[in-house]
């Protein structure tokens, strides 16, 4: 007896899948062999599971026509609601929210998915494929070939390129333009281009596959319509990502086509699925209807994106204008501060010069006062050195002193007084600004310089009277 709840719970814990119905179908497809189901789910090259009938979530017409989901998506609740409970109205698209396998998502995220895979591997020890994506598996680092690691990072893209190359080889170049990248990258491309994603799951072993590919999928009218209005992605169910997407989309009949668009929380909205062989006309009719019914959603998404871009551009312009105004304000503030600092420096410099000039004037005044005081003391000392003027007598010499200004001074000296005494007398008068001068007689011209200062007036020939000129020395 199969322990269904425990196996489903264990499979959810190991793979990270949240949808118990999907886990149940995967386990049922593998004959409830838990180890085989986990290995196939996490392996890049899964083994085809045994054919086990699975219950379809929605009825499939006997003719193999299109199958729509019994769940209708309501934006207000963000949850799928039974179609029977939806409000009555004109017929519209039937939406089904499909949870993507975590390995499909991580496989398209490159190095980031490797980090997630490493954590899951440490917890459960089963996500070897995710580790292999970033080169952390058992064979990593053996040959040190960095190019091999780069190839392994884009394993989903490699599978897509192999599918496209194989499809071209088998059916020619007239086909939908399948993108050579992983499913999640193709989904993101469709979101960026505001288009729906056309998904084709290729079952090479199915008897209807060759005829469907040759007559329907590769017909010029179908290929042109799909290439113009959709982003196309194809996957081989023998490959890892194709197998996982067939489980996610619950493909029960082949050939299998679907139209999906991105939803939230790592989910996709399944708008339409077409199972079984179809003629070009039938497929075009279904695709045209899906395109028409999805047009308002795509137009709204495009308008929202344009509004976001316009708002972003407006914010950037406003931010740029604000930054320019702020920079201008800052420049004016810097200029104002620099002007204030310049004025402060000039004021400080002027104050310093004023103080220096005031100090210089005060110093000059002090020096002048000191010099005047020194001259006054010198004159007083000279006057004391000259002594009192003697009365007239035979031993008294009459000396007349003429100054450069024309002023004349006359005084009597003892005949024994020295020439120095006459100099002292002249100095005591204060009538001469020059400090360095000489006493000179005209007839004959004699200069009584330093060498004659010690001679008496009588010895110098100036007795009984003499007339001397004060001559400043140059």
Topology summary:
Blueprint: H1 4-15, H2 20-29, H3 34-42, E1 66-67, E2 71-74, E3 79-82, E4 96-99, H4 102-107, H5 111-124, H6 128-133, H7 146-153, H8 155-171, H9 183-193, E5 196-202, H10 209-217, H11 220-229, E6 230-236, H12 240-248, E7 256-262, E8 267-275, H13 280-386, E9 396-402, E10 408-414, H14 419-429, E11 437-441, E12 446-448, E13 465-472
Parallel strand pairs: 5-6, 9-13
Antiparallel strand pairs: 1-8, 2-3, 4-8, 5-7, 7-8, 9-10, 11-12, 11-13
Helix pairs in contact: 1-2, 1-3, 11-13, 13-14
Pfam families: FAF1, UBA_4, UBX
Domain UBX: 392-470
GO molecular function, one term: ubiquitin binding
Q: What is the name of the CATH superfamily of the domain at 155-316?
A: Glutaredoxin
Report the β-strand fraction as a percent range: 15-25%
| Name of the CATH class of the domain at 155-316 | Alpha Beta
In DSSP terms, counting alpha (H) and pi (I) runs of 4 or more, how many helices?
Answer: 14
Count of β-strands: 13
**Judging by the overall fold, what is the CATH architecture of the domain at 155-316?**
3-Layer(aba) Sandwich
| Helix content, binned percent | 40-55%
Query: Which residues sit in consecutive blocks of at least 5 with pLDDT less than 50?
Result: 50-94, 106-153
Choose one word for the global shape.
rod-shaped
What's the helix-strand series?
HHHEEEEHHHHHHEHHEHEEHEEHEEE
Report how far the terminal alpha carbons are from each other.
140 Å
**Major sheet, described briefly?**
6 strands, mixed
What is the average per-residue confidence, as pLDDT, rounded to a whole number? 78
The helix-and-strand class reads alpha+beta
Radius of gyration: 58 Å
Q: Per CATH, what is the topology of the domain at 155-316?
A: Glutaredoxin
